[in-house]
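User: Need the bound-state model for iron/sulfur cluster:
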Amino acid sequence: MTVPTVATVAQTAAAIAPPLLAWYDRQHRRLPWRSPPGTPPPEPYRVWLSEIMLQQTTVPAVMPYFAKFLARWPTVHDLAAAPVEDVMEAWAGLGYYARARNLHKCAQAVSTRLDGRFPDTVEGLLELPGIGAYTAAAIAAIAFDRPAAVLDGNVERVLARLFAVETPLPQAKPELRRLAGLTTPQQRPGDFAQGMMDLGATVCTPRRPDCLLCPLQESCAARRQGIAESLPRKTEKKPRPVRHAVAFLLQRPDGAVLLRRRPPEGLLGGMLEVPSTPWRDLPWSDGEGKAHAPAAAIDWRPAAGAAEHVFTHFALKITALHGCIGAAEAAEIDGLWQPPGKAALPTVMKKMLGLLPADTAPAGKPAVRSTRNPRRGRARP
Ligand code: SF4
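Assistant: Bound-state model below.
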């Protein structure tokens, strides 16, 4: 394990804040949840909302959701007063749905217990639902200019390179956390945190770090050693297991499809779903899945094509059966009937609806393929 010496860290820490802050003043990203350098920090509500949305999710994917949430719920009190189902539906497509449930719980805690004011310390923020160590540090630094060590994936990469940390992730995390703490300055810590994030996102990128443009090139051990592109090292991941599901695409004469609400806890908790068989390790043979159909007396026909969706811990291979039902019989079935193109659904469910026969499919039918999250290499559920 390569551990930078105390002297090296102290020397580098002292050397990086001035050029990084000067670079940040000129090159900071313009993002709707940020305030430009030299102006008052952004509202904690905006910082918190953006940081929760950005967990496991890219900036471009978050942008429209952030705008939508702010327009609909401009303050934390507005969000707290909203029905949780509305918040979940507005979140549909952003993935990792436990975040939305905790977002709502957190808004209620801040609105009722704290009169709408977010705590201004890491410790206080950590007591709120859905706020972990990274998010607490980010809010404390960005919204309150506290010298909190903010360590997201971008900052991990920059630090691993600056100090040539060759221990692979995730084992290197404690060391990187220590380095983040040691390098955080007392002056302008919020801008420093955002500068490190921006540097990782725009210059010290995963594949081709642009060291010639980097304000920290003089201090960077990985650049000196010619190993920047190979850092941070990563422990090889085990292959992702595969599960199989058969989706039941049941349609009324008006084209509406049967949907159900999932239980509040667990994967995709509280979201609408297309009924399906259990998601199991073994593929379903022809006709085998029908025992799990939401209605028995239906002429189920295999839908053409197949879809795949990659979750964090497994990939789901989906085939589908399509059936039609009369309006009177449909009224007897538990569930919600919605036009397929209008329902607020998680991405995996949209892919299931993408298997509807062409003459019944919604406009803008999603392509039948895996949709990977470009930032993390996996799909938004
Ligand atoms: Fe990253 Fe290169 Fe800058 Fe080092 S010099 S921090 S590797 S961009």
